[in-house]
From TrEMBL:
PROSITE patterns the record matches: MFS
UniProt KW keywords: Cell membrane, Membrane, Transmembrane, Transmembrane helix
Principal subcellular localization: membrane
Compartments it resides in: Cell inner membrane
Bilayer topology term: Multi-pass membrane protein
Transmembrane segments: 20-40, 60-81, 88-109, 115-141, 153-174, 189-208, 242-264, 276-296, 308-327, 333-354, 366-386, 392-412
PANTHER family: L-FUCOSE-PROTON SYMPORTER, PROTEIN TSGA
Domain of life: Bacteria
Keyword Transcription regulation: no
Name of the molecule in the record: MFS transporter, FHS family, L-fucose permease
Length: 415
């Protein structure tokens, strides 16, 4: 692998280089596609409650299947990426994504929630692979000093996908929900289209030529600019900032999974919205995350990423306290704002955790991706709380934001 020249400390760090632009466009688009897939799962959660007569706790298995795949696939995806490269890692992820989508057809034909769980798990393995590969891939497409900006920029398109997912899901799945209906035709048709689009993207990406990236083993004059291990004698888990990033990511996605899974339930039960109207508000909910990503990327030019992370975590603790009080519109607005402040957390934790790991970077990406398994666990806990009162369920994410705040305030430091 050819080494890319590293900028000196006197050279301003650019966002990326011209030779990386086409690759950056393709990889950034992947963030949007898995954003669609994850938030579509939140709509499926509510849809399956209707057509398969599931309780809130049972329907949380949708999130368990998707996020549980991250735990299973994290290390294999990292090993595959390290052996065969970023591009082949992307192609593996897209292939699993497409296969999982197409498996919705037999699952719908059998009307089996178990079969849907298998399809969702394989789909989850695909998006887990994409996340494991895409974050270090984007970080490598330029100077390390601007990697936080690139990852947050790419994650803004993940937020765009998170807007598109609920919009499509609400229109095709929730709009025509009728009491007692067991029709799964709309689910089958929707996932045939998704699988076809993802398969097409995989074919197109196979023709993209990826330029040589920075060699993490090379000797550099400015370790701030390149992702090199400043203490190569340490094992991966002796890098404490990485360990804390894994912990913070676990709690971060735990909060995300639970918050998103019961957003529609909150709108229906506390605000009196129909499921379709609540689903439409979820589009605004995700739109605020998109806005937060762009605002956060801009603010990182003047505020250190770790400091902004701690500030946003503190804001979300306040939002959760307002949500739990069931104050009508003030609480619902706080629920919407939860996603604005959540916006920068995933990419910023990921980027801070990958700093100065050098040859450990790909392996580290695997473990940080595995931290996403928090999204498989937390919806069950929130679901049990939501069975009695959906507002009370939002006390639980406060624990998560405390951990994230500590990471941003103290434990992010490379030592």
């Amino acid at each position: 692998m050819q080494a890319t020249p590293v900028a000196s400390k006197s050279t301003p760090a650019s966002f990326t280089e011209n030779k990386y632009l086409i690759t950056l466009v393709f990889v950034t688009s992947l963030f949007m596609f898995w954003g669609v897939a994850i938030t579509m799962g939140d709509v499926l959660n509510k849809h399956f409650q209707h057509v398969l007569s599931l309780t809130k706790t049972q329907s949380a298995f949708v999130q368990f299947a998707i996020f549980g795949a991250y735990f299973v696939m994290g290390i294999p995806a990292g090993l595959f990426m390290k052996r065969f490269g970023y591009k082949n890692g992307v192609l593996l992820g897209l292939s699993l994504f497409a296969v999982g989508s197409f498996l919705f057809v037999p699952a719908a034909a059998a009307a089996s929630f178990t079969y849907f769980g298998i399809a969702l798990f394989i789909l989850g393995c695909g998006i887990s692979t994409l996340e494991t590969v895409a974050h270090p891939f984007v970080a490598a497409l330029g100077d390390q000093r601007t990697s936080d900006q690139r990852i947050n920029f790419a994650q803004a398109f993940n937020a765009l996908g998170a807007i598109i997912g609920p919009a499509i899901g609400s229109y095709f799945l929730l709009r025509n929900n009728t009491v007692g209906s067991t029709d799964l035709t709309s689910v089958k048709t929707l996932y045939i289209v998704i699988g076809s689009v993802i398969a097409t993207i995989a074919i197109l990406f196979s023709f993209v030529k990826v330029p040589a990236l920075t060699d993490p083993h090379t000797v550099v004059t400015d370790p701030d600019a390149a992702n090199v291990d400043v203490e190569p004698g340490k094992t991966l888990f002796q890098h404490k900032h990485f360990v804390w990033a894994v912990i913070a990511q676990f709690f971060n996605v735990a909060a995300q999974g639970g918050t998103w899974a019961f957003f529609i339930n909150y709108g229906h039960e506390k605000m009196g919205f129909s499921d379709a109207v609540a689903g439409n508000y979820m589009v605004l909910f995700m739109g605020l995350m998109l806005a937060g990503r762009f605002v956060g990327t801009f603010l990182m030019r003047v505020i250190a990423p770790h400091s902004l992370l701690a500030i946003f975590a503190a804001c979300n603790i306040v939002m959760c306290l307002i949500i739990t009080q069931s104050l009508g519109w003030p609480s619902f607005i706080a629920l919407l704002m939860l996603n604005f402040f959540f916006s920068i957390m995933f990419p910023t934790i990921f980027s801070l955790g990958l700093k100065n790991l050098g040859s450990h970077t790909q392996q580290a990406s695997s473990f940080i991706s595995m931290g996403v398994v928090g999204g498989a666990v937390f919806p069950f806990l929130m679901g049990m709380a939501a069975e009695k009162d959906v507002a009370n369920a939002y006390y639980l994410p406060i624990i998560c934001y405390v951990v994230i705040g500590l990471f941003g305030a103290k434990f992010y430091k490379v030592k």
